[in-house]
């Protein structure tokens, strides 16, 4: 029986597909007719054409599947029509999980984000149980994912075997589009980083995130959340650039950019985006999110799932090599 993977054309989803195939699992992927499929090109997968915005297309994609990995999301920090984020991330998730419940799917792994979790505010990293409210979510993307996570919990309460995973900031090969973290690495390799903000991220190898999905499906507890990150991955942006310098040979920027300068620049970029219809180089939402370091503790996933902990420097090195080998940077 195949496993269905939504979001397989994205970074985490494509890596998850590769991990499933490596274990000789049959894989079916849900993809829109217009999806960019470079990340899974040539892989022996069955493609079910459908869309989270078209609930009628979902039962056919799920039929005959024992496990569902719902990785797909509309991941945009700037959207001219924010309602589309909620339709895809909240209503699309609800429709997909309802179809899974109706068809008797045994296990569901729902891919959320650490962005939906709370931060203690006293320097400690956030955990799965750190209190947080919808009002604390910055921007429509985070709000939509927060609400989608509540949908997943509601279906778990109804008896669907849903396990929620919250990846931090994955890095590694096959970031085709690329993601915001991947774009940061590409810009660094193109020598476009002239300074850094006083913010931080939890970096984790994308392969470890994919393995975390498989482990969650096998031994994760239904209704529980698991942070898929690295215990030594909480790094300030300046530290990330220093590590990139070590693996790339490109000197790290030394100048700290004041928060107000970054916010003003993002405001100008946002105005230009509205005039041109193109996404901004930097959004005010992204700068507002950077006001707090996104540090998290993956201890629960390490203890209960056996989440791998590939060294962060290895993840950065593989990302740099992949971006250079595929023409993203010289």
Gist of the model:
The chain is built from eleven helices and ten strands. The chain is α/β, with parallel strands linked by helices and 330 residues long. The strands form two sheets. A seven-stranded parallel beta sheet has the order 3-2-1-4-5-6-9, sandwiched between helices. Strands 7-8-10 form a three-stranded mixed beta sheet.
Q: Unreliable stretches, pLDDT < 50, 5 or more residues?
A: 266-270
Secondary structural class: alpha/beta
CATH homologous superfamily title = NAD(P)-binding Rossmann-like Domain
Tell me the series of helices and strands, N- to C-terminal. EHEEHEHEHEEHEHEEHHHHH
Instruction: Please provide the count of β strands.
Output: 10
CATH architecture: 3-Layer(aba) Sandwich
CATH topology title: Rossmann fold
- CATH class descriptor: Alpha Beta
